[in-house]
């Protein structure tokens, strides 16, 4: 077990960090006029971002930020200028609660309707909050939440168009995951790109269904695999030949949830004595030669990448020694970071010939939300960009950007401490780039000193030098989850 040194002074204020979870009920639409530095002239397109925008319903706080209503931001870069727009996803539950002026739905992660267990018993109807990711694919802008169908938005103004079954790709009430990957050159489709995503039906045995969708939004392949046990899977990984799932060692007892005593997330139990299962599902029809490996790996939310070398498959992931239990008597804003296991970078090496697996940690600093060059998805890669804690040897909120050369171990690092708190970075390749790290990093930072958010632009080859531009918004955006980039400018 890693022994983490403790520092006497925190590089952040807990009170400032908390304010990043204040609700943002307002919707904005404006050209940003407060920019430090210079926006690169070649940076043209739209940075979409999703996350919980409402952390309370008319004054009643949600129990966990993951239960907050989805709010999509569009940050458009055009001719050296930046435009900001945000809109709430008009889900059925959001519209109903806004009209009623009170909380009407239970949340997955512990939010309960007022009135105690008697008002929650047998109510298993979740609000579809569409708050986790947003992608533009096949001329559709989709707000994603992995427990339900996507909501389609108008990319020009972010107006909600309604639930989208992707022209019949999704069956009625079939979910569409919040962590799709784009294969930049699918060998099954003559080198054309395709979107790969999944849906899970959990239970005593869990059904994983995979979708591969063309850039025109047409279904290319659909296939399924049933795995024994309950699945709590947020992310997966792809290579040219496999979809890779890491089945975390958790169990789920639904009875306290059904009887209104706990939220669903509070009924998930991490089993440290159980192995993690790594499932390789072939992408080539008939998708039957599934391989399963067992390893002691803790808990994983996100993967960095996967790739193949001969008979070896490599999977790089952010691993935690344990999953913090969601408890009804704990306030998520009062978290003590130093008492939690940090996310650290691990590599799993899967031998397809003898069905063995080895693992090693290659970065111990607390970190989350990785990004790589999009052309390297499923391929051997060199550079990784990821949000990181300020201190090298102690857990904490994300306050920095870390660039890691996974081949040499060379690091570049820039911290926004003590007042800045980092979101997910996104790598945007420069036009006609020849080097893998030749691009820009975009990320949203919450500035606790000014209670506002900044959109930050880095040169991907020079992280140590700090941002080339800081776009100061007029307000704060609550801590978000995931986002994406398109070279189209919707203005």
Automatic annotation (TrEMBL):
Q: What is the lineage of its organism?
A: Bacteria, Bacillati, Cyanobacteriota, Cyanophyceae, Oscillatoriophycideae
Cofactor(s) demanded: Fe(2+)
Q: What is this protein called?
A: 9-cis-epoxycarotenoid dioxygenase
* UniProt enzyme class: oxidoreductase
**UniProt GO MF annotations:** 9-cis-epoxycarotenoid dioxygenase activity; metal ion binding
Give the InterPro entries listed for this entry: Carotenoid_Oase (IPR004294)
* The record's free-text note on cofactor binding: Binds 1 Fe(2+) ion per subunit.
- Keywords in alphabetical order: Dioxygenase, Iron, Metal-binding, Oxidoreductase
Query: Origin, by domain of life?
Result: Bacteria
Record GO biological process: carotene catabolic process
